[in-house]
Amino acid sequence: MVKHNEPVVKENLRGGQGHVVLYPILTAEELMGHGTMYARVVIPPHCSIGWHQHVGNTEPYYIIKGEGTFVDHDKSRTTVHAGDICTIACGEWHSMENNSEEDMEMIALVINE
Amino acid sequence: MVKHNEPVVKENLRGGQGHVVLYPILTAEELMGHGTMYARVVIPPHCSIGWHQHVGNTEPYYIIKGEGTFVDHDKSRTTVHAGDICTIACGEWHSMENNSEEDMEMIALVINE
User: Could you report the predicted ipTM of this complex, rounded to two decimals?
Assistant: First the structure.
């Protein structure tokens, strides 16, 4: 089956700045108990996903476009581009900021521990 | 942690034409038993992933660039573009062809039943 889901705008996601746009790929039900979210995420310039913890799951980010600033569990900050993979262990914290002048895009997958 | 995995070239993947390039995102181990493969896949012009079955798992494709032809379990053929999601049920068959003159790219996730 081929489908094309409608985007969802989230304001101040996880306490972040501005808004992000989620393009859902699979629902939790479609992930069949293995995870809770799978989506393309567009972060506009000077917007962010706030600092948040993953308890009982983890959320790798895979960058597909633009430039982001990944804030890791130890608060280290890394500039990331297309092809970069940002992982944390289950139980850890992270955030993602777009401090550039262009949209940045990534694939986010929340998988259970 | 931020990482950037090396691409892997696969000739005649699943019996397909030419080659495809896999950019691994997570290994089976990193998927913690929930799946076996998570990668960005680049299909060059006039190359394809051959017709194959998913027993005990499924593999949604999420198109991020270019134009592909998705061949579904019932052999129906659908032209797909960025933002399209191609799903099959566990146990079903599918393939993906690039009949265009530009690379097409997608995210492939193999998740267990």
Answer: 0.96
